[in-house]
Amino acid sequence: MNQSKYNLKVIIKTKEVTIKLHQRVAIIEISEGTSIGYENGIQTFKRLLSIIGDKPWVYISNRVNSYSLDPNDYKHLNEIPTLKGIGVIQYKRSIETALELEKMFVKKPFKTFDNLDTAIEWALKRIEG
Q: Which residue numbers in the chain have pLDDT < 70?
């Protein structure tokens, strides 16, 4: 279930991605079948960073769809000093191996969840702490 008790506002919507925001928690949903990476995602990501500004924030990947990514691109997220953590909501157990691989490329706190509300609660604590 990808509904939340939190008030989520869609701030960016493209063919490849929808980004919702709750306070300074960015919830990213990639479109079905998309191959997402630095080259095709950087402009959207720059828009997100311009909205958030220089305040601490957390990235949550809400994996409601199946898509591909290059874990090497996490190096770009690792370079953002205001990013305080990365959360991934998994709805399918079949992606656990992929998540273990992704975790090896991330230098920020990285945690997996099975629902959106728990992920947002963790993110808010990361921002406050």
A: 1-4, 94-95
